[in-house]
Amino acid sequence: MIIKKRKLSDGEAQLLREEKLPKLRMTAGSLYLPKEDESKPEGEDAHFVSEESQTIAVADGVSAWTRKGIDAGVYARELMNNAVAGLALEPRGEVNPRRVILHAHSRTAAQGSSTACLVTLGGRTLRYANVGDSGFMVFRNKKLVYQSPTQQRRFNCPYTLRNGREALVFEGEFGVEPGDLVVLGTDGVFDNLYSSEIEEILQETEGNPSPEEIASTIACTASLNSGDLNYKSPFECVAELEGVEHKGGKFDDISVIVAQIESKVLQ
Ligand SMILES: [Mn+2]
């Protein structure tokens, strides 16, 4: 009897290839620089790093709520706390970012609204859920290889998560390799720093800096740019295209998480 060899589907072949490769893990560090505001010393951003769940996330409370006397930072922080609680319910190694965001959204009771971006490493793939203009970039050999898309209704008006409103969550994934660097941040980072400037920071850094040290350099550079009237910021460029007058950097809270992707086996 002749048994014909069944041809593997693309997905099966990919799985087989992945199984032979070493598993990956990410090690992360962060820095948060809230903008100077005596009434809101904690700012309106929030973030967390969960090494255990191999998950990182940022959120950015919408400032416009201040006009109604509401501190959207409270919403953002509660959202991130609820996301951490949601992670505990996820199967090990198979975190579903959308489910975690929806869990957090449904349980956050504070008034306000916030953008959110949650990234998790499973196998050799980064999976993420994003709402609005927070996001992340992946650098390979100190060069940008991936940038998550943002979701906004119009200039400077991102999609957000809000109590009692339907959550429109964008999902995506990207295959990573050992040595890749993930830079996750709120718009305070990417409105004040081009990807080419992050590449420069990575290329100019000597030795073997920790993710925390890299996050600190990126956050501090974005912060310097944010207060520089003569710096033609990414925010200024987009504003110009939209016919909105804006000069220099953008004064904002700055949250950066840097995650280093490495092989699980000791090198
Ligand atoms: Mn912001």
TrEMBL record:
GO terms for molecular function: metal ion binding; protein serine/threonine phosphatase activity. Its cofactor is Mn(2+); Mg(2+). The keyword Cytoplasm does not apply. This is Protein phosphatase. SMART domains: PP2C_SIG, PP2Cc. Signal peptide: none annotated. Pfam families: SpoIIE. It comes from Turnera subulata. The lineage of its organism: Eukaryota, Viridiplantae, Streptophyta, Embryophyta, Tracheophyta.
